[in-house]
Amino acid sequence: MSLLAELAREIMRCQDCDLHRTSTRAVPGEGPENASIVFIGEAPGWNEDQQGRPFVGPAGQFLDQLLASANLPRDKVYITNIVKHRPPSNRDPLRAEMKACEKWLDKQLEIIKPKIIVTLGRYSMAKFLSASESISKIHGVARKMDNMVVVPMYHPAAALHQQSLRKTIEADFQKLPQVLAGLEQVEVATPAAQQLSMF
Ligand code: URA
User: Fold this and answer.
1) How far is the CA of 194 from the centre of ligand 1 (A)?
2) What 3-state class would DSSP assign to 17?
3) Does the Cβ of 49 fall within 6 Å of ligand 1?
4) Cβ(40) to ligand 1 under 6 A?
5) Which of 177, 176, 130 is nearest to 153 (CA)?
6) What is the pTM of this model?
7) Which residues on adjacent β-strands are paired with residue 149?
8) For 135-176, what is each residue's pLDDT tens digit?
9) Does any ligand 1 atom lie closer than 6 A to the CB of residue 82?
10) Whether the CB of 41 sits within 6 Å of ligand 1
């Protein structure tokens, strides 16, 4: 069994906060272990809770369109959430719930080691960037952090019904292939640069 699949089994058994009592099942996330890009939303909604898969409701259908528009097949990226169990009535996750759940996302990222993390909405943005940053100013701007690049985006659910945000998130997704290509160029260039420095 793959490391991610083993981890998913652990997540399914998690009882570290009360959300497991009110939800149907955990939604660990899905995608390949070698994904270059990880998308991180907020928490499962009703559809995700029913199916055990992330982003399969209306926001997920919009995410699928955005991925297709950026030539990113859904089965080549990893998709998950900050919180793995659905909060009752889709309320915002509580600080204690996010804290209890944080270890799972950290372990997923340790296994996948993505080149790019795309945060969808304010909760995942706050994990990687300062909570004082404003999404209206920094959306779609790739930021180098340690050994990866973080790209903050609006949440697809927020953009779904608001025409101006919809255009914004669509334009932001169009930048992703370029960000990925830029990173791949750096990787190709690095060994040659190292070779040169040996002589
Ligand atoms: N919204 C999220 O943040 N995550 C999902 O999986 C679905 C909707």
Assistant:
1) 42
2) coil
3) no
4) no
5) 176
6) 0.93
7) 116, 144
8) 999 999 999 998 899 999 999 999 988 999 999 999 999 999
9) no
10) yes
From CA 69, how far away is CA 182, in angstroms rounded?
19
Q: How many CB atoms lie within 10 A of CB 38?
A: 24
Pocket residue to mutate for ligand 1, from 48, 49, 50, 78, most atoms within 8 A of Cβ: 48
pLDDT at 193 over 50: no
Pairing of β 37-41 and β 78-81: parallel
Q: Is 53 left (phi over 0), alpha (psi -120 to 50) or beta?
A: beta
**Structure confidence by residue, pLDDT tens digits, 80-104:** 999 999 999 999 999 999 999 999 9
Question: Which residue type occupies 32?
Answer: P
The closest residue, in CA terms, to atom 7 on ligand 1 is: 55
List the chain domain ranges: 3-197
Question: Which ligand 1 atom minimizes the distance to the CA of 42?
Answer: 3
Closest C-alpha to 183, from 115, 118, 117: 115
At the second CATH level, the architecture of 3-197 is 3-Layer(aba) Sandwich (3.40)
Query: Are 85 and 19 in contact, with CB atoms under 8 Å apart?
Result: yes
